[in-house]
Design a protein that fits this description.
15% helix, 3 strands, elongated, mainly beta
Amino acid sequence: MTEAVLSRPSRYRKIADKLEVKEVVVGDGERCRRYAVCFNP
């Protein structure tokens, strides 16, 4: 599951000076999962 989440193309949004976040949705319908991926350089 980790590879599926990290490989999804989407843009990071800058939240703070050194924090970026992107939302990733994996799956369809009832089995759909939503993840927030954080990047702290």
